[in-house]
Amino acid sequence: MLTVSNRLPEHSLVAWVSLDATNASTTINHASHEGKWRGVSVGSIDVTVVGPTEIAES
Predict the structure, then answer these.
(1) CA 47, CA 32: separation in Å to the nearest integer?
(2) Where are the beta strands (DSSP E) in the chain?
(3) What is the mean pLDDT of each run of 10 residues along the chain (58 residues)?
(4) Separation of alpha carbons 11 and 50, rounded Å
């Protein structure tokens, strides 16, 4: 598992960069944006907000 400040291995993936249908995606790889920080999220993300009272009741 990679964590903060680990280097990404060689990769190539499609990044969604715009809501405009004609320019919605671009392909990035390990050499693009060299020397800059990147955040990569893979898979679905659950954005359900859980309140403290719901945690206390479980």
Answers:
(1) 29
(2) 12-16, 25-29
(3) 80 84 86 80 67 63
(4) 34
34 with 25: CB under 8 angstroms? Answer: no
- Coil vs helix vs strand at 42: coil
Rounded Cα distance, 25 and 13, in Å: 10
Among residues 43, 40, 46, 45, the alpha carbon closest in space to that of 4 is found at 40
Count CB neighbours of 28 within 10 A: 16
Go through the chain and tell me how many residues it has.
58
Q: Supply 24's token pair.
A: 């919605």
How far apart, in whole angstroms, are the C-alpha atoms of residue 51 and residue 12? 38
8, containing H or E segment: none
